[in-house]
Amino acid sequence: MRHEARRWPWLFALLLGALPWTTAVGAPPLTAREQAGRRLYFQGESGSGTELTATVGAGVRLPGSALPCANCHGQDGRGRAEGGVTPPPLIWSELTKPYGHQHPAGRGHPVLDEKSVARIISEGIDTGGNRLDPLMPRYAMSSEDMTNLLAWLKRLEAEQAPGVTDSALRLGVVLPTRGQFGALGQAMRGLLEAYFEEINASGGIHGRRLELAVAEYDSDPKAGLASLRSLLQREPVFALLSGFLPGAEEEWVRLAEQEALPLIGPLTLSARKTGTSHAHVFFLFSDPGEQARVLADDAAQRLPLASPEVAILYPEDEALAEAARAAQARFQARGWRQVELLQYTRDRFPAALSTALRRKPPELVLFLGDGAELKALFGKARTLGWAPYLLLPGSLSGQVVASAPPSFQNRIFLTVHSLPGDEQPLAREAFARLCARVPSSERFRMEQISAYTAATVLTEALRRSGRLLSRNKLIEQWEGLYAFKPRLVPPLSYGPTHGWEPRASLSSQ
């Protein structure tokens, strides 16, 4: 959810008025102090490692991270009208006007300088000796942190939106281009590059060409994270789209949040923890955990089973364990009481499966493993002549379903995010035209649909944002999408959930 900005409209509310927003193309890189001050401004976190607290009202103390300046004043420091209150601009030329300030309510004070701005931030008292609204937070921070914050406020006025020039808009993606997932990454990259070429051939978006910066890596997710960090330092991007970083998805999302960097449509294989909120990350599809819950409900409603023995097989993973327990509760709520949770380590799946099958083999299995482990399950089933009903989150192992033994025909339930009927004819033709330019892309149709959908949602939000861009404005446009038709998947609406629901489908394999 992204509503924290609406709770404290009075944050640092000491000045009125606004200046036209300006940008400086080709601004120099941030200094170390400016980088630390930027972190404090956006995240309310100290760059020196010391504690940062905010006091509001009659003495309520909160962590600084609960009340970062950017919540109300925005990424550009201009402020946004909230509930009848307009947070003032924090750009340095406005703060330090040589003739001081005279506010509409009658409060006036002489000119501000570094020392007096620091006093306002820490004590809530201006140069005229006036106390500001007690609801405005007073921040307790080290002198080093204060120096860093002031350095960022001085830089803020000249800071342009990252990745934006007069003629181009640079967007980023992290993809494996070598190793185990190299072919998949190349298929997604080729699709995105072809899509951008078509957009640019028609004039770009508001007169800007779209440029794709790729953070490449092999099969090591740590290398992928390092590549992405290097890209952001080397050539900052306006936003991230799509991408694939299995095994480091939590860190990937955390990085986007820390950098206040919009990320649309990351292709994820890991379950997300219940209750996790994201201000800058927008998921296109539900995670394996939600898919597991949908499968449990759907199977209990549709299958001709009275009280079957059910096994939920899942690897050691905190979020998947949470999903397994939630699915177990769904089964039991439907009257299926014999539901066993079977956790295994990734490198010992065959042994864990053999142990589970020594007893009476279950009639139904909800499987939360990956494609390689599903192949092992199919091999064991073929050997034993065992064919349970099988429930599979499509994002985890959907590609392997085609290798199921014939005995599993009409016994596999698979979650899907789109069906053939969701694809509009013109969109299908456009998508096929793009895919034809990418070698060996048919194997990765689902992943390419994910990348294509992320690109269409992003470009729609960019068009709605207008030429004067900011990351905040882009996020506002994403959150405002309602019943938007990406054309290859069902209509999409965003808001607090930042995503949509999966559907279960009976596979004929």
Q: What can you tell me about this protein's structure?
A:
One of its GO terms (molecular function) is heme binding. Belongs to the leucine-binding protein family. Keywords: Heme, Iron, Metal-binding, Signal. This is Cytochrome c family protein. It is a single chain. With 509 residues, the chain is α/β, with parallel strands linked by helices. It has three domains: 153 residues, no CATH class; 174 residues, Rossmann fold (3-Layer(aba) Sandwich); 129 residues, Rossmann fold (3-Layer(aba) Sandwich), CATH 3.40.50.2300. The chain has a six-stranded mixed beta sheet with strand order 12-11-13-14-15-16, with helices on both faces. A five-stranded parallel beta sheet has the order 7-6-8-9-10. α1 crosses α5, α11 packs parallel to α12 and α15 packs across α16. The chain is globular, with a radius of gyration of 26 Å.
Instruction: Compute the separation of the termini in Å.
Output: 39 Å
Uncertain residue ranges: 1-26, 500-509
Task: Count the domains.
Answer: 3
How many beta-strand segments? 16
Radius of gyration: 26 Å
Major sheet strand order:
12-11-13-14-15-16
CATH topology of the largest domain: Rossmann fold
- Estimate the helix proportion, in percent: 25-40%
Strand content: 5-15%
* Architecture (CATH level 2) name of the largest domain: 3-Layer(aba) Sandwich
Quick one: overall form? globular
* SS-derived structural category: alpha/beta
Pfam families: Cytochrom_C (PF00034), Peripla_BP_6 (PF13458)
Family: Belongs to the leucine-binding protein family.
Protein name: Cytochrome c family protein
Domain Cytochrome c: 52-157
